[in-house]
Amino acid sequence: MLSAAQYEALKFCLLSVRSRSTNDAYGTMTFIFTILFVVVANVLLLNVLVALFNVTITRVNKGAHESWSFHRFLLVEEYRKKSPFPPPFNAIHYSLDLTVAFIEFVTPYVVKAFGVLKPEKSSKSSKSKLDFVVPIHHQARSEC
Closest Cα partner for 103 from 61, 135, 144? Predict the structure, then answer.
């Protein structure tokens, strides 16, 4: 099969490969370190992915809560402006609202024109010494 010279050449090649295998770049330790690196990298990247999902979910929840609050406000405001009476009788309610709005609009001009003032009760107030007379329903709405 093999001649003596071929056998010696093959033996020399195999021995030289075996002797070089201790310094081989693909040795056992390199393989173990590569596997260890891949495992640690996967764990770290998975943790980063979970953290990004957490940040995204927090942002979406905050936006959803703000949106829900705003739409709830719009709904409450819509029903606050509506008349509590059914359509035949809501004309009375809207006429009273119109009268109140007109009085609120005209009151500052009347006070300014006629100089209707009331004296201050306490001198510790942060306002000026004299306050203008303001209707009670206007004070109640400004407190809300």
Answer: 135
Cα distances from 111 to residues 38, 128, 136, 139, in angstroms, run 82, 16, 15, 16
> Which is nearest to 93 in space by CA: 82, 104, 102, 103?
82
- Helix extents (H) in the chain: 4-20, 28-81, 90-114, 136-143
Cβ contact 130:115 at 8 Å: no
Instruction: Give the rounded distance of the alpha carbon of 142 from its chain centre.
Output: 30
Query: Residue 131: pLDDT above 70?
Result: no
Long-range contacts from 14-18, C-beta under 8 angstroms, 24+ separation: none
pLDDT per position as a tens digit, 5-58: 777 777 776 666 554 455 566 677 888 999 999 999 999 999 999 999 999 999
Residue closest to 104 by CA, chosen among 135, 65, 64: 135
